[in-house]
Design goal:
Structural class: alpha/beta
Distance between the termini: 58 Å
Radius of gyration: 16 Å
Shape: globular
Mean pLDDT: 91
Largest sheet: 5 strands, parallel
Order of helices and strands: EHEHHEHEHEH
Number of domains: 1
Number of strands: 5
Helix content: 40-55%
Low-confidence stretches: none
CATH architecture: 3-Layer(aba) Sandwich
Length: 147
């Protein structure tokens, strides 16, 4: 039996339980293929560079349980080309990722990949106060600014 290929993507700047939750939820659907955003693209879309350099973030993701394969995103930011290379059955978006599902499906259809299922993980993992990289960074900043 062939397992489905599930693609997830993100910056994965400061790894926290929410990242692990996303990977584990993707693993329930099949083999997990992770695309780690390049430093350049992260800065382009958020206005701020990541704290952890791309090669280090990739190295960490490669060694997380349930990750079948991990790679850096493209410098040219051609997301659909990366999707074509990985050839997933499912693309799983995180609950706070800004991708528009309808727009992504339309783009996939235009390049002959309309058979890929696109889903959004609706559950946001917020069991802990520091459930996002942003919150971790804010706490660090607050701590050092008070010294």
């Amino acid at each position: 039996m062939n397992k489905k290929r599930v693609m997830i993507a993100g910056t994965f700047d400061i790894i926290h339980p929410g990242h692990i939750f996303l990977i584990n939820e993707a693993a329930k659907m099949g083999e997990v293929y992770v695309v780690v955003a390049t430093d350049k693209n992260r800065e382009k879309y958020s206005g701020k560079p990541p704290i952890i350099p791309e090669k280090q973030r990739l190295e960490v993701i490669k060694h997380i349980k349930n990750v079948k394969e991990a790679r850096l995103g493209r410098e040219d930011n051609n997301t659909l080309r990366t999707v074509k290379e990985i050839d997933p059955d499912i693309i799983l978006l995180g609950p706070d990722q800004k991708y528009d599902i309808k727009e992504l499906k339309e783009g996939l259809e235009k390049i002959g990949l309309g058979n890929i299922m696109v889903k959004r993980l609706n559950e946001y993992y917020d069991k802990y106060e520091l459930h996002s990289s942003s919150r971790i960074k804010q706490k660090i900043k607050k701590y050092y600014n008070s010294k």
